């Protein structure tokens, strides 16, 4: 399988005329269409100065992600399903989330042709590809064997917070390994650090409850089969951050690991595999 990872900058380059034409396909109420049109042209105020844009959707706006998804649905998703698939020689799939998407192809020629067609399609709708995040790679059950012929290892890619790796199963078969990316882990730990810094005066039990909720949310997204070691590492890092926060409360603290590890109020939940077969 040949995989094409693509990223774009949709929010800042949405063509308002194209967007309104797309919305009219599903919305017949002229009042709603007029309201969306006014909202798009309302502009943004910075330091008392209003800046009006002729393209794009206001960043941080409540419906910006929705409008961007609608735009890419017509500009990309339907085009891929209704038109492109007829031109490919083998199987082809498109997985998209917001303006990041991955296209999978059975044959390399289809992937190369799609890259050429995609640039033309995106330029028609005023969009551009992020070239530094766009790449073509061999991925899947035969990637390891083919790369080994040249003394190379199969490439991996990051998508939706996961690092996707061509792995090996228990019986030597191909296994798709997905683990949290370094960026995802660092972002979560930074958020925990900032929360502890601001709420260092909270009672220990209240801190424990909130940290439990934060960890549970992280677990629920990343609890895949191969993620358990990484999730246990995150739990340990959160505990160490909490210890350092508790020690800063007093110079005469007793917050040593030998003292804390058996305390009920210091216990944090371990990750459970919520999606063991995915």
Key words describing this protein structure:
four-stranded antiparallel beta sheet; 278 residues; three-stranded antiparallel beta sheet; flat; 9 helices; alpha+beta
Overview of the molecule:
With about 280 residues, the chain is of the alpha+beta class. The chain is about 45% helix and about 15% strand. It has helices at about 15-25, 30-40, 65-85, 110-125, 145-150, 180-200, 205-220, 230-245, 255-260, and strands at about 1-5, 45, 50, 90-95, 100-105, 135-140, 155-160, 160-170, 175-180. The strands form three sheets. The chain has a four-stranded antiparallel beta sheet, covered by helices on one side. A three-stranded antiparallel beta sheet has the order 7-8-9. A two-stranded antiparallel sheet has the order 2-3. A hairpin with a 2-residue loop joins strand 2 (about 45) and strand 3. About 20% of the residues are buried. The mean pLDDT is about 85.
Number of strands: 9
Number of helix segments? 9
Radius of gyration: 24 Å
N to C succession of SSEs:
EHHEEHEEHEHEEEHHHH
Q: What ranges have pLDDT less than 50 throughout 5 or more consecutive residues? A: none
Can you give the helix content as a percent range? Answer: 40-55%
Question: What is the terminal separation in angstroms?
Answer: 19 Å
Query: Kindly state the mean pLDDT as a whole number?
Result: 85
Strand line-up across the major sheet: 4-5-1-6
Name the overall outline: flat
Structural class: alpha+beta
Provide the β-strand percentage band.
Answer: 15-25%
* Main pleated sheet: 4 strands, antiparallel
């Amino acid at each position: 399988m040949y995989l094409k990872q693509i990223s774009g900058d949709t929010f800042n380059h949405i063509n308002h005329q194209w967007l309104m034409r797309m919305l009219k396909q599903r919305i017949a109420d002229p009042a709603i269409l007029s309201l969306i049109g006014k909202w798009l042209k309302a502009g943004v105020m910075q330091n008392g100065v209003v800046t009006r844009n002729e393209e794009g959707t206001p960043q941080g706006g409540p419906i910006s992600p929705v409008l961007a998804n609608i735009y890419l649905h017509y500009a990309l998703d339907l085009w891929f399903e209704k038109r492109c698939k007829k031109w490919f020689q083998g199987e082809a799939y498109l997985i998209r989330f917001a303006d990041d998407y991955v296209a999978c192809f059975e044959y390399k020629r289809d992937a190369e042709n799609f890259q050429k067609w995609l640039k033309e399609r995106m330029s028609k709708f005023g969009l551009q590809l992020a070239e530094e995040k766009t790449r073509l790679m061999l991925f899947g059950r035969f990637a390891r064997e083919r790369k080994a012929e040249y003394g190379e290892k199969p490439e991996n890619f990051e998508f939706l917070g996961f690092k996707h790796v061509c792995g090996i199963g228990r019986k030597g078969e191909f296994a798709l390994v997905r683990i949290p990316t370094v960026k995802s882990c660092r972002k979560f730990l930074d958020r925990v650090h900032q929360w502890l810094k601001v709420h260092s005066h909270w009672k220990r039990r209240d801190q424990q409850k909130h940290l439990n909720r934060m960890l549970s949310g992280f677990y629920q997204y990343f609890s895949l089969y191969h993620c358990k070691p990484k999730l246990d590492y995150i739990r340990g890092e959160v505990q160490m951050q909490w210890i350092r926060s508790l020690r800063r409360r007093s110079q005469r603290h007793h917050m040593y690991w030998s003292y804390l590890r058996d305390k009920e109020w210091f216990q944090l939940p371990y990750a459970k595999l919520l999606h063991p077969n995915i």
